[in-house]
Amino acid sequence: MRNDSDIAVISTAYLPSVRRNELTETEMLITVVDEALDKVGLKRSDIGFSCQGSCDYISGGTFSFVPNLDAMGAWPPIHESHVEMDGAWALYEAWVRMRHGDVEIAVAMGSGKSSTGDPAEIHPLELDPYYLAPLGVDPVSLAALQARQLIDTGKSSERELAEIAARSRRAAADNPRQQVRSAESDVDKLLAEPYVRSPLRRSDLPPISDGASCVVMATARRARDLVERPAWIAGLDHRSEVHNPALRDLTDSPSTRLAAEKAGGVAGVEVAELMAPFTAQEVVLRQALGLGDDVLVNPSGGALTGNPLMSTGLVRIAEAAEQIIAGGRNRTLGHATSGPLLQQNLVCVLEGDI
Amino acid sequence: MSTQTSQTIQFPYKRTLGPVIGRFFSELTALRIVGIRCGDRVVVPPMEYDPQTGEQLAEHYVEVGPAGTVVSWTWVPEPGPHHPLDRPFAYALVKLDGADTNLLHVLDTGGEDTVSTGMRVAPRWRAEPVGRIDDIEAFVPGETPEGPTAGEPADVRTMEFFSTITYTDVLSPTLERYAASMRAGVITGQRCPRCDRVFLGRGYCSVDALRLGPEHEEALPDHGVVSNYTIVTPTPYPGQKETEPFARASVVLHGDEMVVSQQQIIGVPVADIRVGMRVKAQWFPEAERNAAEISSKGWGTVAGFIEGWVPTGEPDEPAEQFMDRVF
Ligand SMILES: [Zn+2]
Q1: Residues in contact with B195: Cβ distance below 8 Å, sequence separation at least 6, in sequence order
Q2: How far apart are the CA of A2 and the nearest CA of chain B, in angstroms?
Q3: Does residue B148 sit in helix, strand or coil?
Q4: CB contact under 8 A, B134 and A134
Q5: Which of A2, A230, A255, B116 could form an SS bridge with A8, CB 3.0 to 4.6 Å?
Q6: How many C-beta atoms surround the C-beta of residue B254 within 10 A?
Q7: Taking the CA of residue B116 as centre, how many other CA atoms within 13 Å lie in the half-sphere pointing to its CB?
Q8: Nearest Cβ partner of B104 from A22, A121, A135?
Q9: B259 touching chain A per CB within 8 A
Q10: A75, A117, A120: residue with CB nearest B80
Q11: Cα(A135)–Cα(B94) distance, rounded to whole angstroms?
Q12: Judging by beta carbons within 10 Å of its beta carbon (0-12, 13-18, 19+), is residue B310 exposed, middle or buried?
């Protein structure tokens, strides 16, 4: 039985991840909000709270998130908020806000256009400004340091990384909203490709992507009237670790493990959508979560085949929710990460009515 | 045809370091690397707090290295402009002798086949250390540091860091049409079928969140009324070009509620600007009009096409009718 105050994901929408979307971020957001609301017959005036996730550093303009707020319209006025984080954290804020009890329907969004800048130029500036930023260390180099430690400590192998890439690419071939859909997926051929940053090859890295996503949530009082099979949020938690990756054990993710415990644990989870933009990070996350071989990981194709920053994490939760809403699963997990090398991790455990 | 606009944002940071990072950087100027004691461990680079528990640490410094062991590495075969070396190099996690954590830094070995996990490395110091993490230019193979002779440490309290990012936008279809019409000297707006408001180069109604397309476009007058203004006394900061007090005004286009804000009023002293004043656009010569100020992260702007607004000399509109508005 559900309590009236229980909260469910009732609808989701996201744009195909592409190298460059010609629409502005606001236009992309209007499109996904329209689509997500239309699916369940809601209007913007039905929404009690909205929260967006985006990043001015990626967009390249101070307060560039302000026009994005237009995606909800200015009238009638509703409570709205913004996080300078992936949309998964916008969902977290909306979920917390709903638990006050006076909002029955809320919307979380995520959007980003990485096409406007060079990630190797922008991302060092998100790092510790004293010890790391002056070294210009780019995200792919950081990921390679993590991958090599994982391999050197015997927790993974280049072959396992190639198998993750191959599996993700095969999954993406069936998902028209993923960006890398027709790339090589033979493990031996991938292993024969040159390194971009040893021990990582092109297939171990995500594409550069534009995209936007929207997730609609409702309390139990409304959810069942709006959708046949709501995806109930059984637990939602996020935890973070020290910023500087060099001070952490990069082969483990205690913050992911703790967030999962606080969100109700992984027992019974059938599908996990993990935000692992680099193959080695999927290994770290799987091991930290203790996911068994029977858990289906990233059937969407995952962040490896479509990585619209600030939306990628919310898409994982959307995909995990759709596994219940449309896929008939009973228990799924969506994960999002933020900061360098899995610094901060969010876990959302979702359940269907049995 | 698509229009690309490019913007470079620069951040000339000057940061205070605090006691712990300041001490670490001060020691670097004397070619010494220090960590901080954290329980029975030594954390390098030193932090003000325990990386695991967040508890503040006592300022108990321990000299470490200068040599250490490579714990992980990756090779950068084609360095970009933001990388620290202009020839192929490695990033590495180095565990300095006496430290219990890793230091992320740069390895200069000459070739990828000369790097391996477990190899021994030592710092190559900058000729004249200033108290920055890149006073160590790179770590090099072996046990022996390279560089100048150590002197007395400087008292380093701040760090300057200049960062720059260039963004390249491809204009959206809406902005592309808007820019084309502005190049031709016509302000084009989009009228929302629901609320009848007009927007410049936006692609949607901000009130109703309705997408607006070419079918909603119409030419707007290039004259209107000053609805609000402010006089700014400039203070110097990076990027500020004004030296004398200047005005920024909002102009309501004739017959509509469309406000063009942050506009210059040309041809009158700032003291003569008033609410209700009728003005018309002063367009740049056609050859000089450009879309450089238009970007996908905002709305349509007249900057780059309209230099400012000139009083027409016609009688003012009554100022009272603009009093209840923000812009
Ligand atoms: Zn409207």
Answers
A1: A75, B205, B207, B208
A2: 34
A3: coil
A4: yes
A5: A230
A6: 16
A7: 6
A8: A135
A9: no
A10: A120
A11: 14
A12: middle
Residue for token pair 């629901």: B194
**Cα B71 to ligand 1 centroid, rounded to whole Å:** 59
Across chain B, mean pLDDT equals 93
* Per-residue pLDDT reduced to its tens digit, A265-275: 999 999 999 99
- Single-letter amino acid code for the residue at B237: Y
How much of chain A is helix, strand and coil, in % rounded to 5? 40, 20, 40
Predicted-assembly ipTM surpassing the 0.90 threshold: yes
The minimal CB distance from A137 to the residues B25, B45, B104 is found for: B104
- What confidence category does residue B285 fall into, taking pLDDT thresholds of 50, 70 and 90? very high
- Taking 80 as the threshold, does the pLDDT of residue B300 lie above it? no
User: Exposed, middle or buried, B243 (CB in 10 Å: 0-12/13-18/19+)?
Assistant: exposed
Which chain B residues have a beta carbon less than 8 Å from that of A145? 72-74, 91-93, 104
C-alpha–C-alpha distance, residues A213 and A110, integer Å: 5
**pTM of the entire predicted model:** 0.95
Whether the per-residue pLDDT at A126 is higher than 90: the answer is no
CB-CB under 8 Å, B7 with A60: yes
CA distance, residue A113 to nearest chain B CA (Å): 10
CA distance B33 to A298: 44
CA distance A108 to B241: 40
What SS3 class is residue A288?
helix
